[in-house]
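Lab notebook, bench 4. The sequencing result for the construct came back, and we need a structural model before the next group meeting so we can plan mutations. Quick request posted to the team channel:

Model the 3D structure of this chain.
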Amino acid sequence: MVVGAPAALAAVQQLARAAGDAKAVAPAAAGKNAIAPLPFDPKKLNGISEKLIVSHHDKNYAGAVKNLNQVEEALAQITPDTPGFTVSGLEAAKLKFTNSMILHEMYFQNLGGDGHGVGSATEKALVQAYGSHARWEELFRALGNSLGGGSGWAILDWDFHARGARIYWAGDHTTALAFGAPLLVMDMYEHAYAMDYGASAKEYIDAFFKNVQWAEVERRLGRAQTADAVLRS
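Done. Here's the predicted structure in token form:
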């Protein structure tokens, strides 16, 4: 759960005290990240309750955004005299909260569908990478189930190095493919399903697939492939 990362927030408070009359000026965007609304009607998900998805959005995701804003404001006050451990702690927190914000937003954006209508480009990419859509889904579900009872993300990325779609594990908000673009994101932290399914990650994964917005996945893939072509030109 991102809300409450005590070490990071303690570092923020420590730096605020130590900065005193520091004259460092914050970048225009520092601490100004906005909480994006849910892109669908939370009452209309299939198998994921309104109570759970609203809690997930308003507490876990919104908490990450608020914590990131605090960290960015603290980083803007760094001076040459700021202790190194404070700087490194804040930078680590910034990465964690930034990735949590981004992955949560992508997770919500790839929900709200009916689980059907996989785009032609997406289907082709999955077949090229895994031999069949069914095999890809089998492996993606297996990764999700492996994270049940713990924490992490199951992500289908466009891998710019491999030039193809690949499944990746993200055991923390700070572990991610170095040169990739997420196409489909599944939150496997317990806050994403325990309210509805207890410890049954498998039932949650079934519900997740019933709500995938494949049009969003197709859109992301198109952008990633366009970027890949530009990078190779």
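The first helix runs from residue 6 to 19.
Will bring this to the meeting.
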